[in-house]
Amino acid sequence: MSSYFTDLAQQYIDGEWRPGTGSWDIIDFNPYDGEKLASITIATVDEVDEAYRAAARAQGEWAATNPYARRAVFEKALRVVEEREQEISEVIVAELGGTRLKAAFELHLAKEFLREAVHLALRPEGRIIPSPVDGKENRVYRVPVGVVGVISPFNFPFLLSLKSVAPALALGNAVVLKPHQNTPIVGGSLVAKIFEEAGLPAGLLNVVITDIAEIGDAFIEHPVPKVISFTGSDKVGRHVATVCASHFKRSVLELGGNSALVVLDDADLDYAVDAAVFSRFVHQGQVCMAANRVLVDRTVADAFTEKFVAKVKSLKVGDPRDAETVIGPVINSSQAEALTGTVAQALAEGATALVHGRATDNLVEPSVLTDLPSDSALLRQEVFGPVVFLVPFDGEEEAVRLVNDTPYGLSGAVHTADVERGVAFAKRIDSGMFHVNDGTVHDEPIVPFGGEKHSGLGRLNGETMLDAFTTMKWISVQHGRSGFPF
């Protein structure tokens, strides 16, 4: 077992590794075989306060540091990840139940986002704006918000922690990170260790491993952080947004999805099948952008379905350490039980199982369901696992209506032989992202990433990081003399 699970099973506050002072432990399990990986005494409200106070003390000097010097930390962090890539991959496989393919995918993206953070340190620029007042010079500065609280999820914890932590730090902020309790090492202390080795000054990044059962809303209510970046479910995101608003904090919310992959009548069916199977089943379907629904024009539905079902049946389910495994375990037993319940509910509502997967502990085999009644709530909610709904449609108008008939609006894809037809289709979908002739699962460092409707608020990546983690300050200079009415 990797030494990461023993060495990093601690809190990281103000540059020190130490146990929490809570009265109980978070037990970190391997979701595939149930092996106990680590036991971590949780952080209390007091430790959350200490972490935020440490961040506030360290942030001012960091913000005043030459951005070229800040940039060097991220260059070193990237080298650390590259040097430790094999070790980190093993930890992802063990703690998340991620397959080898998934670990490589997550690490590739994490490195890309660290490369972007290197450049982001130099991105903030000021402006001089004209004034109607003679002799006045209006300067607009882009400055760090101060301290950012980051709450990361269990599905891509290394990437999705870094995705907020690195830009926030690069732009001159300090950060307190709270990883998901199912992935405390990959999503939390591992990130801290990388930046510690990269030379980030103490106090600028703090990790508190805890649970809301212990701290309640203390992490988001605390007076120090000015921005909370949350990735997770829309239910929790709604609560985070409400608490932030009541405390005059900004929230950046990357939430769930109910994406559709659409196959039009002129699509390349073999290619569409490959895209659809990847889009639904990558990392066991535990991806916010995953294609919950595959919509197929009725004129090609039979041919597509035959190919799709055959490919799904060929996917190897099992030990994520095996390089041939495509589908490993879901993160915990409650997720496995929820997925079994979803399939049972669909069948009770009249759906037909073209593939009916079994669940053994946390290993959930793929299920392909069709004929679900059009008014079923299951077609409108997020399903976080290897269950997919095939839905035939008659023509583009119905396809657009079906894609949009959900509270979510994160990602999606359309397949067609006519690229411009695909673009026209994509423009009619109420989502933050949509892809023509590709899968639904994509993330790139400099494109705006985020959703509409219940899929979130705000955007991350590229220039949008400036909006997320900096604020604008107007300073005027009167070079002459103003006239006052009294």
* Percent range for β-strand residues: 15-25%
Please count the beta strands (DSSP E, at least 2 residues each).
24
* Helix proportion: 25-40%
Helix-strand makeup class: alpha/beta
Low-pLDDT runs of 5+ residues are none
| Average pLDDT score | 97
Give the count of helical stretches: 16
Q: In this structure, how is the largest beta sheet organized?
A: 7 strands, mixed
Strand order of the largest sheet: 14-17-18-13-12-20-21
How far do the termini sit from each other? 76 Å
- What's the gyration radius in Å? 24 Å
Which descriptor suits the 3D outline? globular
What report would you give on this structure?
The mean pLDDT is 97. α6 (157-170) links the parallel β7 (147-151) and β8 (174-178). The chain has a seven-stranded mixed beta sheet with strand order 14-17-18-13-12-20-21, with helices on both faces. With 486 residues, the protein is of the alpha/beta class. Helix content is 39%, strand content 21%. It contains 16 helices and 24 strands. The protein has helices at residues 4-7, 45-64, 67-83, 85-96, 100-120, 157-170, 185-197, 212-215, 218-221, 234-246, 269-281, 301-313, 333-348, 396-404, 419-427, 464-469; strands at residues 11-13, 16-18, 25-29, 36-41, 127-129, 136-144, 147-151, 174-178, 205-207, 227-231, 250-254, 259-263, 291-297, 352-355, 359-360, 363-364, 367-370, 387-393, 408-409, 412-415, 435-436, 452-453, 456-457, 470-478.
